[in-house]
Amino acid sequence: MSSRRSHVMTSAADGLDLDGEDVLSIAWNAHITATGEQLPAEAFTIRHPELDSSWNFDFDDRDEMACRLPRLAALYLE
Q1: pLDDT per position as a tens digit, 18-53
Q2: How far apart are CA 77 and CA 61, in angstroms?
Q3: Dist. CA 76–CA 17, nearest whole Å
């Protein structure tokens, strides 16, 4: 099991939400684990594509979350 998945599963089991630095640390730690090196300085620029309009839905809708993100929903939704 990857360390990212393990971190998410452990956090879910402990009832913790991942956000901000917690989420960013997953990539940071995965890089260090894979390469044995710190991220390069230019890695701190956050770039992301525009969100696909099909993802413009109510994230509080439990049924929609279970449909779209079943593995995360199984961890976080009761």
Answers
A1: 776 767 777 788 888 999 998 887 777 777 788 889
A2: 11
A3: 9
